[in-house]
Amino acid sequence: MANTPSKNQIKRILLVLKKKNRKYASLDMLSQWMGLYPDVLADSIEYFSPLIRMDSSINLMSLIPEFEEYVKPTPQAKDDEEEEPKTKRVVATTKEVDEFKSVSDFIYKKMTNAGGLIDQSYVLSEHDLRILQKLIGKELKEKKKPAKKTIKGRNRKV
User: Fold this and answer.
1) Burial of 31 (0-12, 13-18, 19+ CB in 10 A)
2) Per DSSP, what are the bridge partners of residue 150?
């Protein structure tokens, strides 16, 4: 047997078969309805009916219950989704970043005691790290800017 087919592919096959209100549907008919080659469809369907490659006249309507069983979600998957709430994304806005002139200003305002000494027990939160990351990026960008050239022997800028 081939590898297990994707659930999305089986959902599309199931949708087309249900839409066509017929008693009989072969692989060739399904191929015409979906606009895919019979070999591509056979790759997905052979998981349910291994003889589909040899005999393309097998009635696919009889396989609808198996398709539905394969596609229906498992109850365990629902429990997993409910247990894990989405964590909020931590974002540093430009307004918060603009409060600080540079990385050293950030360190002075956030991480120093009243005497001006750095507090080594201070732990940066994820939000503080985002602000610091943006400040570092801003300073690196400024350093990469080419310096303005001056003409030799004169103090005029070009």
Assistant:
1) middle
2) 157
Task: Spell out a b/e string for 116-132, using b for 16 or more CB atoms within 10 Å of the CB, else e.
Answer: eeeeeeeeeeeebebbb
Geometric angle at alpha carbon 7, from 60 and 39, rounded to 5°:
50
3: left (phi over 0), alpha (psi -120 to 50) or beta: beta
Binned at pLDDT 50, 70 and 90, residue 92 comes out as confident
Residues 123, 108: Cα–Cα separation, whole Å: 14
Q: Where are the domains of the chain?
A: 7-74, 82-158
- For the chain, report the end-to-end CA distance as a whole number of angstroms: 74
Summarised one tens digit per residue, pLDDT across range 24-44 is 999 999 999 999 999 989 999
Contacts of 11 (CB under 8 A, 6+ apart): 71
Q: Which CATH class is domain 7-74?
A: mainly alpha
* Residue recorded with tokens 């052979």: 46
Burial of 10 (0-12, 13-18, 19+ CB in 10 A): buried
Q: Which two tokens stand for residue 107?
A: 């360190």
Residue showing tokens 């027990």: 121
